[in-house]
């Protein structure tokens, strides 16, 4: 029965990493997958996260018994508070249901399964462009109609607000609309508060269902509170919605798969029912989530001093990224690279949507050994003081050709 198997590429982003790893060229650069790197091009474990890992490993009271299907209660509490903030009315009124997931991807999938299979929702809107996996997740969950709302104005290299609002204004009641909470992937361009308010008005008017992917909370500004503004605003406006949380980027726990699915509902009585119904999709899928990463996050966020240390490191990481943005823009301008490059510093988070076309990207990959996605997205965290000249010169060269 396996006779017609063919080798496929299920995730182009991880294929780029494979190509990079196999490349023997000395000056090769990986600007593909969204992972933080130090100025020495090293993978980075946040010191306080490392400290908490040791504590978890050496804690004699912990064992390997199954977690509840809904996950580690302590983790769900601190993670949800990180997203919604301590003053959140919905939290105080106990109108929030939280379920631990295997990182943000799985939070998206659990929500999509529930919305498609239980709520019978059929239509989902994505920003154009969005993370390559979003559409696949909603498709696998059973959504039938996939629509996009314009997000990125290619020529102006900024958000296409009039067309975005127009698309959402034409969406029908009950459509799910996916938003990125902060540090939009791949464009690195977020809505202003004023623009978010306009979007929220349309959501209310058309009775749309917001789903907010907050995979980069803290990575846009270095401040997780600021990065959660839209989620907190929607909650304060009395909307019902769901949000996916991930601790891959902001705590660097990529391979531990630590996430949380947060649902805000109108009545506290609905919370136990909703959690139990979500379990109907957890049980036949992975049954219950892994414990280790959730215990680490609980220790980081549950202790004032640890949390402060984490916030400080997060700022250092985002400062390094901001500095790389400035340098890249400056160098491209100094090299008289045709076009405008100021969008690189107007964008935030890990990524810059450079505006490079597919042909230019292909040349960078093949001729310069610089790995980036076909969309022209680069991971700014892959830049450092040693490779930035090479990257700027290479980009400039392919643009001038
Ligand atoms: C990315 O966009 O590079 C990351 O979110 C990694 C992934 O899973 O795609």
TrEMBL record:
Q: Which GO terms describe its molecular function?
A: L-aspartate:2-oxoglutarate aminotransferase activity; pyridoxal phosphate binding
Q: What is its EC number?
A: 2.6.1.1
| Entry keyword annotation includes DNA-binding | no
| Keyword annotations from UniProtKB, A to Z | Aminotransferase, Pyridoxal phosphate, Transferase
> Could you name the Gene Ontology cellular component terms for this entry?
cytosol
> So which cofactors does this thing need?
pyridoxal 5'-phosphate
Q: Where is the Aminotransferase class I/classII large domain?
A: 27-395
Q: Per the UniProt entry, what is one GO biological process?
A: aspartate biosynthetic process
Reactions performed catalytically: L-aspartate + 2-oxoglutarate = oxaloacetate + L-glutamate
**Keyword Transferase found:** yes
Its subunit composition reads:
Homodimer.
Family from the record: Belongs to the class-I pyridoxal-phosphate-dependent aminotransferase family.
What else is noted?
A: In eukaryotes there are cytoplasmic, mitochondrial and chloroplastic isozymes.
Q: What is this protein called?
A: Aspartate aminotransferase
Origin organism of this chain?
Drosophila rubida
Q: What is the lineage of its organism?
A: Eukaryota, Metazoa, Ecdysozoa, Arthropoda, Hexapoda
Full-protein residues shown here are: 33 to 433 of 591
């Amino acid at each position: 029965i396996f006779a017609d198997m063919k080798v496929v590429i299920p995730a182009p982003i991880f294929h780029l990493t494979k190509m990079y790893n196999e490349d023997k060229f000395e000056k090769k650069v990986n600007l593909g997958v969204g992972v933080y790197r130090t100025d020495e091009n090293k993978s980075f474990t946040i010191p306080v996260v490392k400290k908490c890992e040791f504590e978890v490993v050496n804690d004699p009271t912990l064992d390997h018994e199954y977690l509840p299907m809904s996950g580690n209660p302590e983790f769900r509490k601190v993670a949800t508070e990180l997203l919604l903030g301590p003053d959140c009315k919905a939290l105080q009124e106990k109108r929030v249901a939280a379920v631990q997931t295997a990182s943000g991807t799985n939070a998206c999938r659990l929500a999509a399964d529930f919305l498609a299979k239980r709520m019978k929702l059929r239509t989902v809107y994505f920003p154009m462009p969005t993370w390559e996996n979003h559409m696949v997740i909603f498709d696998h969950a059973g959504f039938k109609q996939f629509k996009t709302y314009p997000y990125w104005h290619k020529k102006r290299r900024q958000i296409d607000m009039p067309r975005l609002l127009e698309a959402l204004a034409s969406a029908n009641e009950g459509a799910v609309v996916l938003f990125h909470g902060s540090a939009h992937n791949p464009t690195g361009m977020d809505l202003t508060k004023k623009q978010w308010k306009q979007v929220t008005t349309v959501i209310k008017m058309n009775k749309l269902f917001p789903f907010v992917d907050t995979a980069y909370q803290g990575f846009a500004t270095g401040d997780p509170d600021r990065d959660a503004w839209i989620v907190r605003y929607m909650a304060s406006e009395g909307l019902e919605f769901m949000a996916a949380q991930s601790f891959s980027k902001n705590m660097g726990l990529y391979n531990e798969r630590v996430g949380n699915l947060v649902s805000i509902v109108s009545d506290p009585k609905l919370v136990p029912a909703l959690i139990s119904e979500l379990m109907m999709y957890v049980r036949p899928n992975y049954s219950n989530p892994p414990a280790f990463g959730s215990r680490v996050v609980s220790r980081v966020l549950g202790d004032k001093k640890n949390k402060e240390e984490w916030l400080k490191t997060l700022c250092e990481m985002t400062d390094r990224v901001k500095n790389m943005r400035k340098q890249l823009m400056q160098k491209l301008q100094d090299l008289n690279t045709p076009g405008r490059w100021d969008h690189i510093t107007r964008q935030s988070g890990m990524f810059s949507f450079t505006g490079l076309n597919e042909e230019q990207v292909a040349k960078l990959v093949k001729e310069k050994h610089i790995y980036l996605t076909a969309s022209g997205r680069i991971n700014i965290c892959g830049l450092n003081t040693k490779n930035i000249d090479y990257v700027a010169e290479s980009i400039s060269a392919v643009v001038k050709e």
